[in-house]
Amino acid sequence: MESRPAFPPGLLDTLATARHIAVLTGAGISAESGIPTFRDAQTGLWAQYDPQELATPWALRQNPGLVWSWYEWRRSLVRKAKPNPGHRALVELEDLVPHFTLITQNVDGLHQAAGSRHVIELHGNIMRTRCADCGRQVKTWEPPPKGQVPACPHCHGVLRPDVVFFGEPLPSEALEKALEAAIHCDVMLVVGTSAVVEPAASLPRYALQAGASVVEVNPQETPLSPLVHYRLAQPAGHVLPALVQTLKERLARLQGGR
Ligand code: APR
């Protein structure tokens, strides 16, 4: 059996006594499901493209075919992907604390596929499509002529993935809920994010300012690393299940009075 990682002193007590745990996830939690992250090296076909240049309203206007192809490629990866042990560990964690908030920057829906409830999606969902002009969500559309992009069945505007492009505001209700959780949680787990894209990157900083303990789960250092209370420098799919299992055992002992 694989050995469990040793956790930093104090971490288990901090988690065991927390009333509200908030979790902020990024692309790293889905890496072990086969979905490439954004700032680690891009692989294959799209290696030469910078996501920051494709995921913009400007790119959609200038080169909708290229943007659609890139999103179609990413959708094909998401369709094939399954939740991994990291996603599943967060489903179990939800049941161990009185109040739990899961905030994600990911657009792949894998937290929901794993069974997480009430996921706050800060950056939308790649499997939804909406019209860039009239804003309506669209489920079906006429296949476009070769080389063109699909048009909105209502207003003939340009269809686009229902995700937040660089330079666009985040959905206000999701952002408000995320801020609320950051300010009120006792512990924030920050999993698999480079912590450089705002406003999500500020959420752990708000949590720190409000007095929460912040735990970073990431094999690589990030700008957040020097600020956090605990760092687990291992892949989420390995360390989260071990952490949640150890926490369960700790809580069982506490309830048993030992
Ligand atoms: N477990 C945990 N962390 C991992 C793992 C893993 N198995 N594999 C990689 N990571 C870490 C990397 O070290 C990196 O710090 O995940 C992080 C991924 O960072 P980014 O690619 O920058 O992804 P993210 O932080 O989610 O990006 C934020 O930027 O492009 C936009 O909208 C997109 O939501 C995205 C946002």
Write structural notes for this entry:
- The protein is of the alpha/beta class and 258 residues long.
- The protein has two domains: 1-34 and 83-123 and 171-258, Rossmann fold (3-Layer(aba) Sandwich); 36-80 and 126-163, 2-Layer Sandwich (SIR2/SIRT2 'Small Domain').
- The protein is built from ten helices and nine strands.
- Strands 3-2-1-7-8-9 form a six-stranded parallel β-sheet, with helices on both faces.
- The longest helix is centred in the last third of the chain and has 20 residues, at 236-255.
- The mean pLDDT is 93.
- Bound molecules: adenosine-5-diphosphoribose.
What's the quick description here?
The chain has 258 residues and is of the alpha/beta class.
Which properties best describe this structure?
binds adenosine-5-diphosphoribose; 17% strand; 9 strands; Rossmann fold; 6-stranded parallel β-sheet; SIR2/SIRT2 'Small Domain'; 258 residues; alpha/beta; 10 helices; elongated
Alpha-beta content class: alpha/beta
CATH topology description of the largest domain = Rossmann fold
CATH superfamily of the largest domain: TPP-binding domain
Helix content: 25-40%
Query: What is the general shape?
Result: elongated
Outline the low-pLDDT stretches. none
Gyration radius, rounded: 20 Å
How many β strands by DSSP? 9
How many alpha or pi helices? 10
What gap, in angstroms, lies between the N and C termini? 26 Å
Overall residue-averaged pLDDT value: 93
Report the β-strand fraction as a percent range.
15-25%
Largest sheet: 6 strands, parallel
Total tally of structural domains: 2
CATH-derived architecture of the largest domain: 3-Layer(aba) Sandwich
Bound molecules: adenosine-5-diphosphoribose
Strand order of the largest sheet: 3-2-1-7-8-9
